[in-house]
């Protein structure tokens, strides 16, 4: 067998259901991953017969492993992290019997739909901004929206050394609006509102792609149904993974 015929180490960790490839890259950079008796490098590949360890835990990729996909109504105050040192982390809150991790983030102060899985490939496909997967939010701010608010928000706002991508914005009330994004910059909506002189009071994500928050109560989760899974795989089938 040729030495380059193995599987990339970050993909191996993802396939084992341990975490996403992005998180696996962090573990590798922190020298927390071993292949047999050697510290893994970002370029390392796993060959047949190799053993992979993360923090001394032996990872095993099960054949025909059934992936898990959850829709969760994250309450405000819960942190979208798997860090066990954070007492408010979402994994501890849900306490699911299998190892899962969130797809993307939702601010601690925000609430609404969060997807969790143990399928690393789908995480990367969904998160890529270039794949233009929609996320919809309902937002209330601290004062009445000005007549030009919708136009300015939808055409792009300068934050984090860039201009936000054009997006769909619709006024829902004097202090409330609906916004659909296809990118996920850090605290993007809050920063956009702040640039225009508004402070976000409440922020709820009500949809990710075709998956709605509707029907879930705060703090509760459900498995994605068969129809949702079929459409999800169709939507990401042409998406870039990395």
What does this protein structure show overall?
By secondary structure, this protein is an alpha+beta fold. It is built from 7 helices and 17 strands. The strands form 4 sheets. Strands 7, 8, 9, 10, 13, 14, 15, 16 and 17 form a 9-stranded mixed sheet that branches. β5 and β6 form a beta hairpin. The model has no long low-confidence stretch (mean pLDDT 89).
Q: Count all strands and give the number.
A: 17
Helix content: 10-25%
Structural class: alpha+beta
Q: Looking at the structure, what is the overall shape?
A: elongated
- Name the beta content range: 25-35%
pLDDT average, as an integer? Answer: 89
Stretches with pLDDT under 50, minimum 5 residues: none
- Main pleated sheet: 9 strands, mixed
What's the gyration radius in Å?
20 Å
Q: Tally the helices: what do you get?
A: 7
How are the SSEs ordered, and which strands pair?
Elements: E1 7-8, H1 9-15, H2 21-29, E2 33-35, E3 38-39, E4 45-46, E5 52-54, E6 57-59, E7 69-74, H3 90-94, E8 101-102, E9 111-117, H4 120-127, E10 135-141, H5 149-155, E11 158-159, E12 162-163, E13 168-171, E14 176-181, H6 188-195, E15 200-208, E16 211-212, E17 221-223, H7 226-236
Parallel strand pairs: 9-15
Antiparallel strand pairs: 1-4, 2-3, 2-5, 5-6, 7-9, 7-17, 8-9, 10-14, 10-15, 11-12, 13-14, 15-16
Concise account of the structure shown:
The chain has 242 residues and is of the alpha+beta class. The chain is built from 7 helices and 17 strands.
């Amino acid at each position: 067998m040729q030495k380059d015929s193995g599987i990339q180490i970050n993909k191996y960790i993802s396939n084992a259901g341990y975490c996403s490839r992005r998180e696996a890259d962090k573990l590798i950079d922190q020298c927390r991953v071993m292949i047999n008796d050697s510290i893994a490098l970002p370029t390392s590949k796993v060959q047949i017969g190799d053993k992979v360890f993360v923090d001394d835990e032996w990872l095993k990729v099960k054949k025909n492993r059934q992936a898990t996909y959850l829709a969760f109504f994250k309450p405000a105050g819960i942190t979208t992290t798997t860090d066990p040192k954070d007492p408010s982390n979402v994994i501890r809150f849900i306490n699911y019997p299998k190892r899962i991790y969130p797809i993307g983030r939702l601010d601690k102060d925000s609430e609404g739909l969060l997807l969790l899985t143990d399928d690393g490939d789908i995480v990367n496909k969904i998160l890529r901004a270039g794949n233009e997967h929609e996320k919809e939010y309902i937002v209330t701010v601290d004062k009445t929206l000005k007549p030009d608010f919708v136009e300015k928000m939808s055409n792009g706002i300068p934050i984090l050394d860039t201009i936000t991508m054009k997006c769909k914005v619709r006024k829902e009330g004097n202090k409330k609006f609906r916004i659909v994004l296809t990118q996920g910059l850090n605290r993007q909506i809050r920063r956009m509102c702040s640039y225009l002189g508004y402070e976000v009071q409440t922020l709820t994500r009500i949809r990710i792609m075709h998956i709605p928050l509707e029907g879930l109560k705060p703090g509760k989760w459900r498995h994605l149904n068969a129809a949702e899974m079929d459409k999800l795989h169709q939507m990401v089938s042409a998406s870039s993974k990395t």
